[in-house]
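Tip: read the tokens left to right.
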């Protein structure tokens, strides 16, 4: 009986010419390996067979996601009432000052 030739992750990286993280992902996706002493080992003959199967397997074309254009929502605006012009007499100045003071109090109450 012929002895089994085991490959390390580094050996498989060199064989497939990929990074070791890619080998880990391929193991999760079905690349055959065995755990020996808590380490991944690959049987050389099995890896060769896996490479042949991958190269002859029907490859599904990768579909690119279709980018959709953002759709803007149409909003109908209500007509705005025209305001009467501000009077400049002294009583209206007091009203404007009261409104400004009330607004400032509201801002202090809600934003501080």
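Filled-in amino acids:
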């Amino acid at each position: 009986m012929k002895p089994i030739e085991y490959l390390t992750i580094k050996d498989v990286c060199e064989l497939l010419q990929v990074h070791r993280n890619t080998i880990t992902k391929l193991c999760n996706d079905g690349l055959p390996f065995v755990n020996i002493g808590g380490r991944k080992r690959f049987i050389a003959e099995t890896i060769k067979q896996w490479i042949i199967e991958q190269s002859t397997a029907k490859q599904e074309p990768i579909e690119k996601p279709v980018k959709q254009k953002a759709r803007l929502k149409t909003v109908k605006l209500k007509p705005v009432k025209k305001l009467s012009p501000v009077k400049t007499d002294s009583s209206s100045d007091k009203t404007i000052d009261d409104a400004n003071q009330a607004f400032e109090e509201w801002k202090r109450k809600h934003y501080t």
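Strands lie at 6-7, 34-36, 39-43. The longest strand covers residues 39-43.
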